[in-house]
Amino acid sequence: MTVRRGKKLSISIQEHMAIDVCPGPIRPIRQISAYFPRLSPTSPTPLSPNPGSSPLIPSPGGVAPGAGGGHLLSPLLPRGGAAGGGGSLSLTSSMDTSMEINSSDSDDCTALGTLEFALRYEQSSSELHCTVLRAKGLKPMDFNGLADPYVKLHLLPGACKANKLKTKTIRNSLNPVWNETLTYVGITEEDMHKKTLRLSVCDEDKLTHNEFIGESRVPLKRVKPDQTKYFHTCLEHPPPLPSPTAMGAALRGISCYLREWENEQLHSLEERGRLLLTLQFLPPVGEEDREGEGGGGGGGGGGGGRRSEGLCVGVRRCAHLAAMDVNGFSDPYVKIYLKPDIQKKSKHKTAVIKKTLNPEFNEEFFYEISVSELAHKMLEITVWDYDLGRSNDFIGGVCLSCHSQGDALRHWMDCLKNKGQKVERWHVLTNELPRTLSHD
Fold it and tell me: For the whole prediction, is pTM greater than 0.85?
């Protein structure tokens, strides 16, 4: 096709289509991150966007052999690694390393940033310490190209406001340093095997809602008791929920049913906090072989001088209670029943602790009862939020009996087997209101 001077270049639609669909090798479209790579901290060298050919430094006189004009913007390697293929990192090894860090591709990893933190579980005190160290290369969220990041922690499953912990906010920084330790109280060994810790990095905005940057999830079973484990992970997007539209017509109804059932289960088993409880069955004072143990236990429970046997219940403290008031706190107190209670004389109540989510009660109550009768009883413990002028709000509760399960059953049986000894254990408070409980 010839074009004369002074005339515009005109191409027919047939020629235009022929140019676009001309035969040849189909090459993938490169991303902008391929020319400006920011790999994970474990990758020693950048990765070439063209896996078929080894990365070369273009010479100033021309283009390297085997490379077309599109290779002029290929990312450069250090000169020490340009000579020979030994200094470059293969595509397979780089992807394996990135998968080991945060199980996502390098583009998502570098776009959101990295997070460094440490975990330590104190088995004797049932405490989980999370030290949030620093973050690097966070995604800009504000108009000034910076962010106001903070980190919040949740325990999964059962994430709610009751088990949320939060660090301070670092203003105008993409590489914040916190060095802040957040502690979960009342973490049992069962929690360490079943729970997952989610660390979410968010950007704080005073005028609008806070924005989510990225998260990192760590199964607590990776943390050994009384040992500090350090983590350096890449932030990820939250895992997407499976969409019923992507399934067949026969599976859509099942998927919707499973979603509703899962939401009901999570709602019914919502954690409302933790309760530290001590149980001690005091034998009769008249038995000389148990007088030393019974006298020591009775003195600790305020029951010195009691002649009959009975159960001593100690309410020590609560941790991470759900906030029931507008100010973000609660005014908690604890009520105790030993049921069935025909005469309605088993009710005990602690004092009200104002404006706190981690109250300490340290109160003990005594029930005069025999072991044979206690085996057919149920100890019902509920935590309430006191409200002046209206009905109190139920926070959570737990029931202990021979028909309980998990930690509640173990605690109850240990108390019956070890007479005269105090048995202390943490219990999870759920939002299930016992049927026999009345609002008062």
Answer: no
